[in-house]
Amino acid sequence: MKKCWVSLLLTALLLSACGGASAGGSYSASSGSAPAAAYEEAYDGAYDDAYNYGYAGADTSRPEPQTAAGAANGLKPPANVKMIYTASVSLESTEFDAAAAGLDALTAELGGWYEHSSLDNSSRNYRRASFTIRLPAAHFTDFCTRVGDICKVNSISTSSEDISERYYDLEARLATQRTKLERLQDLLAQAKKLEDIITLESAISETELEIENLTGSLRKYDSLVDYATVELSLSEVYQLTQTEEPVIGFGARLASAFRSGTRRFVSGMQDLLLGFARAWAGWLLFAAIVAGIVLLIRRARRRRALARSAGGGADTEKRAKKPPLRRLWRRRGRDEPETDAAAAPPSHQTDGEVEEK
Predict the structure, then answer these.
(1) Does any domain span residue 271?
(2) Exposed, middle or buried by CB within 10 Å (0-12, 13-18, 19+), for 86?
(3) Has residue 163 been placed in a domain?
């Protein structure tokens, strides 16, 4: 009687499910458990029906998905194509606050919001902000076009990704898991053995967890498809970057070189002055140290000069008290020749003449 009941149950499950290959993750049970074996047969026949159902609502003969350039030009893909649009925009402005307010107004007008924002105020006293903006995919092109009216666009890049295959595959797998869950619950209601009940409850828990994971993945894809993502950076500058026109001829190139050199020189001088202004405390300390060293050197020189002047006065007094040696020789020279001349005979007189005198 038991074998007859199992045969009838298997026959009913096989008639209600189409045969096909499993999508993976089939549960293996012992061959002696009739509900577990029926569960395997039920799961094997559920995937093809669900997979075909997932693609039944989609036009499999859809055209090739458009590129990001086409999206930026306003071309829209068919409704059944699942596209994710992203953009990266670099902006600059001399009026940072007004530009930020303009971006806020544009984002709110198009139904978007800031998913992430940051402000950096440490780069040469110029501010830089980064934003991650989410806005409806229908207004993606409008935003990329109108953002140039608020700030100067330095660069902009857009991209699109077709996730239709992955999306519909997830839908099919989700439908498979839901069908599998229904059949497992039916088997659990009919099971009587404790072993079969435990096996079926474990399989139901795994199926419910897989359903939650697939549902979360689909929700994430829905969010990315319905709302585009724009990575935007806004920089505050003293002067907008000049877009140089193509130059022809040596004179034009020379003029362009002079203009570029002038801008760089002015910018360099400004940076230099700003550097001095930022380091004023250090420069003040350096000037105080140099001034102290100069004062010490001057005081040392003055002391040496005073010491020399004091020593020179004492020598002068000694010299005044003691006549110079040159004067003594002069006086001696004036006195000695007379005595010597009177005592010494002339050289031209003879000894006899001297005796006669």
Answers:
(1) no
(2) middle
(3) yes
Give Cβ neighbours of residue 324 (< 8 Å, ≥ 6 apart). Answer: none
**Total count of residues recorded for the chain:** 357
Q: What is the DSSP track for 305-329?
A: HHHHHHHHHHHHHHHHHS--HHHHH
Residues 123 and 6 in one domain: yes
- Residues of the chain below pLDDT 70: 1-77, 123-124, 243-248, 311-357
Task: Give the pLDDT score at 165.
Answer: 93
Q: Given its phi and psi angles, is residue 249 left (phi above 0), alpha (psi -120 to 50 degrees) or beta?
A: left
**Given this model, what pLDDT does residue 321 score?**
56
Residue 183: its pLDDT value, please? 94
Cβ neighbour number for residue 229 with a 10 Å cutoff: 18
Kindly state whether residue 274 falls inside one of the protein's structural domains: no
CB 202 within 8 A of CB 87: no
The pTM score is 0.53
As a dihedral over the C-alpha atoms of residue 133, residue 136, residue 138, residue 144, rounded to 10 degrees, the angle is -10
Q: Are strands 83-93 and 152-162 parallel, antiparallel or unpaired?
A: antiparallel
pLDDT of residue 58: 43
What local confidence, expressed as pLDDT, does residue 180 receive?
A: 93
For residue 158, what pLDDT is reported? 93
- CB contact at 8 A, 33 and 195: yes
Amino acid residing at 139: H
- Report the domain count for the chain: 2
Tell me the H-state helices in the chain.
Answer: 2-16, 34-44, 47-56, 68-72, 96-109, 140-146, 164-190, 194-226, 250-278, 280-321, 325-343, 351-356
* pLDDT number for residue 330: 57
Q: Does 18 share its domain with 108?
A: yes
pLDDT at 9: 45
Identify the domain containing residue 294 by its residue range.
279-339
Q: Distances from the Cα of 65 to the Cαs of 49, 123, 161, 218, in angstroms?
A: 27, 42, 9, 20
CA dist 24 and 47 (Å) reads 9
